[in-house]
Amino acid sequence: MSTPDPAPVPAPARRSYAWAWLLLVVALGGAGVYGWMQWQARAEREREAAADAGQRLDAVDNRIDAIRRDQRAQLQRLQQADATNRVLRDELLGLGQRSALIEDTVSRLADPDLHGAQALRLDETELLLSLGQQRLVIAGDLEGARRAYALAGHVLDGIDDPAYLSLRQTLQQERAGLDALGTEPRVKAMAELDALAQSIRITPVEPTAATTPDAPWWRRAFASLIDVRPSDRAIAVQPADRIAAANGLQLEISLARAAAERRDEAGFRTALQRADAWMTRLWPESPMLREQRARLQAIAARPLSLALPTLGSTLQQLRQLRTH
C-alpha cells in the first residue's frame, strides 16, 4: 500500500507584512502631520492670546493713565474749591464785622443820650483837627492848617452841649498860636535866600583904596602895577577866578535853599558856611562884606521847622471827652 505524499508547506506571506509596515508608516506619518498641525494651531492660538493680552494690557494702562489724569483734575478742583471756600469764609467774616460796625454806629446814632447830629459834628471836628495837624507837621502847610482849624471851629460852634465849652476855648488858644506864627520859617528862610542871591548878583565890587579918586597920585599911578592886599586872605582878582567864585557862591545858596525845602537844618547851615567862605573870596574886608555876611549868618540861625507847644491839644482833649 502506497503512502500518500505529504501536503506541500505554503511559503510565508511576505507581501502581507509589507503592507502592514506600509500602513504603519502611513499611520505614523499621518499622526505626525496631525500633531504638527495641532502644534501649529496651538502656537497660533497662543500668539493670538499673547497679542490679545498685550492689547488688553495697553488698554488697561491707558485707562489707568486716564484715571490718574481725572484724579489730578479732581484734586485741582478740590484745591480750587478749598481756596474759594477760604476766600468766601474771609469775606463772610468781613461782612459780619462790617455789619457789627454798622449796627454799632446805628445804635450810637439812635441813642438819645449821644445825640446823632452831635456825634456827627464831633466826628467832623476830629477829622478836621487831624487834617490840620498833619498838614502842619508833615507838609509844613501853615495856611492849610489854619483853614482846617477854622472849619473845625465853625463845626464845633454848632454843638450846644455845655460840656464842650472848654474845648472851644482850647481851640481858640490853638488858633491864636497858629495865627501868631506869621510866615512859616522855611518859606521865610527861602525868601531871604532868594533876596540875598539877588543882592549879591547886582551889588558891585567896592573899589580898592588905590583906585579911589581921593587916593594919592602915586598910589593911583602904580595901582595897575602893584596890588597891596592882606597876606592872610586870598581874594579872586582875575575875571575867570571871580566868575568861578561867584558861581560857587550862587551854587551854595541854591544848595542851602534845597536843604531848607526838605527841612535839612544841618545841610542848610553847612551850605551857608561854604557860601560865607566864597564871600571872603570875592570881596575884601569892607562894610558891604560885613553886611552881607551878617545877613547870611542871620539866615543860617533861623529855624526851619515850626515850634508850637499847644499843637494837638484840642484834638487830644476832644478824644478824652469822647472816651468818657
From TrEMBL:
Keywords: Membrane, Methyltransferase, Transferase, Transmembrane, Transmembrane helix. It is an enzyme of class 2 (transferase). The chain crosses the membrane at residues 18-37. The keyword Methyltransferase applies. It comes from the Bacteria. PANTHER family: PROTEIN HEMX. This is Uroporphyrinogen-III C-methyltransferase. It comes from Lysobacter stagni.
